[in-house]
UniProtKB/TrEMBL annotation:
Residues 362-525 form the RagB/SusD domain. It comes from Prolixibacter bellariivorans. GO terms for cellular component: cell outer membrane. It holds the Pfam family SusD_RagB. Keywords: Cell outer membrane, Membrane, Signal. This is Membrane protein. It comes from the Bacteria. Its main location: membrane. The keyword Oxidoreductase does not apply. Residues 59-225 form the SusD-like N-terminal domain. Residues 1-19 form the signal peptide. Belongs to the SusD family.
């Protein structure tokens, strides 16, 4: 089988798998239907198989429907009116019919099914002629991505079913939820394997963008940091052993990876820098597709008109920063603010560059992920549904902040040299003055600003709720989750898009989609151990 034939075969394999996922995560074909005896025979075959895990329909559905609405609207960073699902998330009135909730659950389990199928096929089909290290590296890629999906599910739902072999669901489709601590242990097991078997760097240009051991160690540190709060034995404190593990792995990335932050924050989100070293894990989209739910669809959220659209079709949703998010930026934090959110009068030379740039004339809108026209990106076939931006889900700056927080641990504040060094690297890159001491509030605010519009802040609030629920609740209820007008440099809050009900401890776990409960009533049963 020649190289082109293998690519064609892989496309059919993936298409068959994803087509089978159209209803719910329990509907899976037998492995024999999506694999052949003449694939998974070489290292190149394995790399083709794992390459398909970095994008595709499951990720597209999640990115379009849930990435911003759950990560940033529900957390209070952004607001989106005239969208019932987003209004529910903004006002804490979420039901099991919410489209963003359904898409997130369904999308993550589709990703998991794809990973499971790949893992099982590699184990079953790979001959001994393929070096063991290459086989394990391929398995490690799939297990890393599976771990990311389970981390997403664990943060949003807590107790969820752990599924390693989807073929077993054909004979036993009704499965219970598993305890959230077991979900975290499963994630850690996958990531530990990935740490041990992924390379430190990719070996060729064709492999650029694949995860490495540094990606796995960064995500493992983040998982340990979240889990440390869940495993807490007392309110207000986190498990010290898990904090130490977070510190160990994040410190390895900070000190031993050789990776550095890019000089310019705004450059992170430009397509010419898709393969930057700071992107430890990014979705690798094909900008040539115009099929619905197949590409990066984030430009649909563009606040501008046709002049900054990929193909002459303006964005559909006016997603905007909340007034509370606007208030987070200090007067000197303009680099990150402008790269993340547009305010009236902002000028962007990289958008509509052929016509001299673009000046935003609306009140406010999202800038991050809005990359402009085909000409701006030198991608003649890009559409509104297939942005060329390969958006990062884990960045080096995130790991720097995880390291600082793990060092802070259960202390009220710290002036530790390493914590300050890496925390201040993030700030100084943004043109913001360094600090001489950090505490939990400073860290959370820094993460909120640095990672705004990247679907991170809700996970941070959930992690906080594990060990300090009252503080997490107060942050949700204390912020002004409303749009604002902006004229002559003055912002004024407006009315919310719906009646905002007070957040409670229950707000940190999403309802299980109603359709999934109908298909699998065991999801309503008490969770059971997995290990």
């Amino acid at each position: 089988m020649n190289f082109k034939s293998k690519i064609f075969y892989l496309a059919l394999l993936v298409a068959g798998l994803l087509a089978s996922c159209s209803k719910d995560f329990l509907n899976r074909p037998p492995l024999s239907e999506i694999s052949t005896e003449n694939f998974y025979q070489t290292t190149s075959d394995l790399k083709l198989a794992t390459a398909a895990l970095y994008a595709g329909t499951p990720w597209a559905e999640y990115t379009y429907t849930s990435y911003l609405t759950i990560g940033d609207v529900m957390s209070g960073n952004m607001v989106l009116g005239y969208n019932d699902d987003a209004v529910q998330l903004n006002t804490f009135s979420v039901t099991g019919l919410n489209g963003a909730v359904v898409a997130n659950w369904r999308g993550m389990y589709k990703v998991i099914a794809h990973c499971n199928t790949t893992i099982n096929a590699i184990n079953a089909k790979t001959p001994e002629s393929v070096p063991e290290a290459d086989k394990n590296a391929a398995l490690a890629e799939a297990r890393f991505i599976r771990a990311y999906a389970y981390y997403n599910l664990g943060l949003l739902w807590g107790d969820v079913p752990i599924i390693e072999d989807n073929t077993k669901l054909i004979s036993s489709p009704l499965v219970p939820r598993n305890l959230v601590n077991d979900v975290y242990q499963f994630i850690v097991n996958d990531l530990t394997f990935a740490v041990q078997n992924l390379p430190e760097a990719v070996g060729s240009d064709w492999e650029r963008g694949r995860v490495t051991t540094w990606s796995a160690q960064g995500l493992l540190a983040k998982v340990y940091l979240s889990w440390s709060g869940l495993a807490s034995q007392s309110i207000g404190e986190r498990d010290q052993a898990l904090l130490d593990s977070a510190k160990l792995y994040a410190g390895n990335v900070c000190k031993n990876s050789g990776l550095e932050l890019m000089d310019n924050y705004a450059d992170l989100f430009k397509t010419e820098n898709n393969y930057n070293d700071e992107a430890l894990f990014a979705l690798r989209w094909d900008p040539t597709t115009s099929d619905w739910f197949h590409g990066n669809m984030l430009q649909i959220y563009s606040p501008g008109g046709t002049e900054i659209s990929a193909d002459g079709q303006a964005g559909w949703f006016g997603i905007r920063p909340s007034y509370d998010m606007y208030l987070q930026y200090s007067a000197d934090d303009t680099i990150r603010r402008k790269a993340t959110f547009m305010l009236k009068g902002d000028y962007y030379p990289e958008l509509n560059a052929a016509a001299g740039g673009y000046t935003f004339t609306g009140e406010s809108g999202m800038k991050k992920h809005i990359i402009g026209t085909k000409k701006d990106n030198n991608v003649p076939i890009m559409t509104l549904y297939s942005s060329a931006e390969q958006n990062a889900l884990l960045r080096l700056a995130d790991v720097y902040l995880v390291y600082a927080e793990a060092i802070l641990g259960n202390n009220s504040s710290t002036a530790d040299g390493d914590a300050l060094m890496y925390f201040n690297k993030v700030r100084t890159r943004a043109g913001v003055q360094p600090v001489n001491s950090i505490d939990a509030d400073i860290l959370l605010k820094e993460r909120r600003i640095e990672l705004a519009a990247e679907s991170q802040y809700w996970g941070d609030l959930v992690s906080l709720s594990y060990y300090n629920p009252q503080k997490a609740i107060s942050l949700l209820n204390g912020g002004e989750r409303v749009p604002f007008t902006y004229n002559d440099g003055v912002a004024e809050p407006e009315n919310p898009f719906g009646v905002i009900t007070p957040a409670t401890a229950n707000s940190f776990r999403l309802p299980i989609p109603s359709s999934e409960i109908t298909a699998n009533p065991k999801l309503l049963d008490a969770p059971v151990p997995y290990f």
